[in-house]
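We treat protein structure as text, and this decision shapes the records that our systems exchange. Because each token names a local backbone shape, the row as a whole describes the fold. An entry from our holdings is shown next, in its original layout:
>
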Amino acid sequence: MGNIQPGTGKIGSGGFVGRAKYARAFYDFAVDGGAIGTITMRGDTIPSGAILLDAFVEVTTAFTPTTTTTVALTVQSAGDLRAAALTNASPAVISTTGVKRLLVDASDADLVKATAERSISLVVAAGAVTAGVCSVVVAYVELT
């Protein structure tokens, strides 16, 4: 086997187009609470300059909100992974268990680029969350 060459796997290096990387963050009501405000999820961060490609959430314990609770998932700016929405509204992203897509779909024209190292955050508004467990996975690419 040969040595790993510097620059291997970077965009622009010989014959290699790019590689998606992944950040995973966790939320558990029993650990993180559910009060109104921004809750920084535990886990990986998104590096400065990263361009977000896709994201999904796996809800293992459905979130229990009040009837007015809104929740957004954010990296760079308000609701860039999931805009603030009533937790019990359709589509039920976090009020039911399972895996749901966030962020990018074919109709999105703009991608998100991190302007600094960022954490994945859960933003609770209008009413507290009283239960819930989820993991968020974000796919991104670094161009430099």
User: Anything to note?
Assistant: The first helix runs from residue 29 to 32. The chain has one domain: 21-141.
